[in-house]
């Protein structure tokens, strides 16, 4: 808002001071506070605010008037309002007292000399006795009732003004250590009998927490006060409030040079909190013990049993702190158990926990242990390398020391492979070559062969020609090895080092074909009589990274992927489908976690009408939700793109236990008649019982094969409803027709792009050239970060982020690289250069390249 506009609004609002409406008057104070830093001449409203501060004014207005006045008050005006503020500080109404104290706290930097004179009044506010009926801290909140101008406040029980007053009093006396010490002893001494009893001066738990922090600061700064302050902290461990107990225990744990004897009572309190039903207490206690275990692990050991019970805590932060603390305090048997659990949640914990682990894990590697134990430790270090780039070099150094004396061949091979992949990417890659070559000299043939492969990767990946020359010398020595595998590898890599193109292809290429997609396409190829007339098209197989392939192999495979017999036509193609198989396949929903594309293909092939459409190009990565999960009918949609057809699969779940749906179909109406699609058929779901999902298929044929139809469809479910008994499920004989409108479904450009992976983006980018390039600039004002912009762009284009560009490393500048295959097998690449500013959002220059400028323009139009 401009200054002129703010000023006009400010003075217009001040006219409402005459209003009798309580809610409207409350809003006036809020607007004044917000506009005070923008508008001009705001000082003109001072007299009105000072009038509302008077004791004769309504209680509901006084606190807000004080806050608003202090917002527009500067150091020069402070003496003129000093009398009113001092009176408000000791007011019997807590809301007024708190407003004055908090406002004084914020004015302190500008008017120290004036506010320091109020120490007696602030001290009186701390010592004030609670009245039976006084205004509460919430009394300034409106009742939004205009029936009467009077406002009765409920009695206060929070005593929050003591917390505010104590903070201001410390601010006034913070440079007088003796005065602060006297204040602590005075306020603590009043409740020495019971620490928190109602007879003490302090009745607010937050005020006690503040007092504990002051005591801990004095204890840290003044050695002579150590024992008296410790006695106070130890006494507060028995306070009736959990928050005070925890604050005192935390303060004791943070004492410099604290002894085990001094820690004992604090640890007892924290140990009790570990079994608390409140997860906030469990989290606070385990985090404090985790920090303490770094310097005093033996003192924390009595809590090991309670911490082991927290490993399975449903709160992941609590479980993470528990396991990292036990790694410091546990014995050999417990650490062995813990190591097997680390890799299961490594990707879910934050970087600070992972950094704590690295030092511990490196020490464990040097200890005695069996294969499973050492394998678990190595796996954990591998995860640290993967998830924390900052710890990579330190982790690799520990692994190098480990293989110097490793008795397990499998682990040595895995470490050597990791060194070959990650070593060349470090700032000083040459320091790892010595460790790798030592394996060639000292190890068995399997390890020697792995070491030769790792050396070759250094020769290809490191830019320094001297390194490449040294690697050639080392590989030449391996030609005399007595094992033929080692000699063969050395010969191959020496040849590849002289051929840059082949070296890039065989040594640096991190991509591989999706085996599930390759299997599916091969089965379809050999099962179809028409495919024998043309060669198998390998370019249609999407590529993924090797890490993605490994992750896919580790997933549970609960679905039989090999359902077709090579050389025999499938039942779907021949049209012979048993009724039971057909019904089950049409109602099935693919199991997540395997290859969705393959599952959808196998599902669709069992439907003769759809199997006739040929090879499936792409299915939606995830279903589009068309209803909320709480509605009576939960509907989602999956889009399947074939060569000449588009199939919409509607997955429907009936959540009403007193209804049976029969003959369920979907009526799809495109937003435009010339969308380029005509409906071919609808395959309805015969019936949908309670909580038994089913599917409806709607197939469209493309009228123009040279264009990719884009547009939106409105969708309406049509069905016959039969009421049924919720307990027995028996439906009525008669039903009635009904319909249900769901959200629209859109065909977007991303539906025609298959994400794929390439290892050498720049090489593929240069190969496509600028002939088919389209460049546009966009302003993504809705994106609140570069990460959000990357996620949005990947979803819109339907492409795959390559070279680890999917997650920005900087918060202000990033380059996103994308790869995909457009409908028809056309390779498409995109490069997006982004900048982020909190005021303007994300500004992006998007470049798209393909063999056809028209295709590039189609892809880039997805962002418009």
From TrEMBL:
Q: Report the family membership.
A: Belongs to the COPG family.
Major localisation: cytoplasm
- Give the species: Gigaspora margarita
Tell me the ranges covered by the Coatomer subunit gamma C-terminal domain, including all copies: 750-863
Membrane-topology annotation of the record: Peripheral membrane protein
Record has Protein transport as a keyword: yes
Q: What does this protein do?
A: The coatomer is a cytosolic protein complex that binds to dilysine motifs and reversibly associates with Golgi non-clathrin-coated vesicles, which further mediate biosynthetic protein transport from the ER, via the Golgi up to the trans Golgi network. Coatomer complex is required for budding from Golgi membranes, and is essential for the retrograde Golgi-to-ER transport of dilysine-tagged proteins.
Domain Coatomer gamma subunit appendage Ig-like subdomain: start-end pairs: 599-747
Report the coiled-coil segments.
none
Keyword annotations for this protein?
A: Cytoplasm, Cytoplasmic vesicle, ER-Golgi transport, Golgi apparatus, Membrane, Protein transport, Repeat, Transport
Q: Which InterPro entries match?
A: ARM-like, ARM-type_fold, Clathrin/coatomer_adapt-like_N, Clathrin_app_Ig-like_sf, Coatomer/calthrin_app_sub_C, Coatomer_g_Cpla, Coatomer_gsu, Coatomer_gsu_app_Ig-like_dom
Q: Where in the cell is it found?
A: Cytoplasm; Golgi apparatus membrane; Cytoplasmic vesicle, COPI-coated vesicle membrane
Residues of the Clathrin/coatomer adaptor adaptin-like N-terminal domain? 5-500
Cite a single Pfam family from the UniProt record. Coatomer_g_Cpla
What protein is this chain from? Coatomer subunit gamma
How does the annotation summarize its subunit structure?
Oligomeric complex.
